[in-house]
Amino acid sequence: MVKRRVFTIILVTLLLFPLAGAISIGAEEVLYHTVKYGETVYGIARMYGVTPQAIIEANKLANANLIYIGQRLIIPAPAEEIAIHIVARGESLLSIAAKYGVSMWAIALRNGLANPNLIYVGQRLVIPSGGTPAPSPKPTAPAKQEAIIITSPTENADVTSPVTVKGWGSGFENSLAVDILDETGNVIGQGYVTVDAEFGQYGPFTGTIEFTKPTKAQVGRIQVYTISPRDGAIEHLASVTVNLKP
Asked: Quick one: which of 18, 58, 89, 152 could link to 74 by a disulfide (CB 3.0–4.6 Å)?
């Protein structure tokens, strides 16, 4: 009777106060991605490191261009070892991501976190990684920190669809809007890039944007800007002139 009572106390203690750290498990569960505004199958595939065709086949998509906001897509990630991390006091999603050598946004997406700043002690987070690779070196911030800086494509670079846009900046919910304009100033592509930093902080951004290819080579422009959450106005804008290729 005493032994059973002691065992019960230990079991309850472990359930109420989980050990901080990582637990390695076999990944048999299905990985889903919920489509957001401006996302494409190509961009989602790059985000998870899989091919667009793999997503198309896993979801039986008749047309890869016809996906909609809120749609849940199966991500055919390989069934490999992943980690479960138990959040400890003082940890942030950024520090946890650095520990495992993955992006904080990869963890947020995998766990359906609407706000990466809102995690709590004892929370179980799935780390989308087959191991614990050494974290890649952080890019160095530019000496002159303007509100938004586009580092790629460079001025007068040749681009075709889709184009990967990179740079530095900050924005509401760590998102920056992107417009691609043709030679007449018409918008031929739109999307978002994501800032890899704590919410509201300055950091590197990257994103892949698809646009309607012109029938002939022409000079165009890529614009990256922030949108005010209060009234939808453009607050900061940077642009670069590029050569659009058919």
From this structure: 58
Q: Which CATH number is 18-127's, of 3.40.190.10, 3.50.50.60, 3.40.720.10, 3.10.350.10?
A: 3.10.350.10
The answer to whether 185 touches 171, Cβ cutoff 8 Å, is: no
Chain segment 118-161, per-residue pLDDT in tens: 888 888 887 775 444 444 455 666 666 688 999 999 999 999 99
Q: Which of 129, 71, 70, 119 is nearest to 93 (CA)?
A: 119
Contacts of 68 (CB under 8 A, 6+ apart): 35
List, for residues 173-219, the tens digit of each pLDDT value.
Answer: 778 899 999 999 999 999 888 888 777 788 888 888 999 999 999 99
- Do the Cβ atoms of 221 and 184 come closer than 8 Å? no
Taking CA atoms, 33 is separated from 72, 114, 173, 232, in Å, by 6, 13, 18, 27
- Class for the domain spanning 148-244: mainly beta
**In Å, what is the CA distance from 145 to each residue of 140, 152, 162?**
11, 16, 27
Give residue for tokens 């230990």.
10
Residue 201 C-beta-side C-alpha neighbours within 13 Å: 10
pTM recorded for the entire structure:
0.47
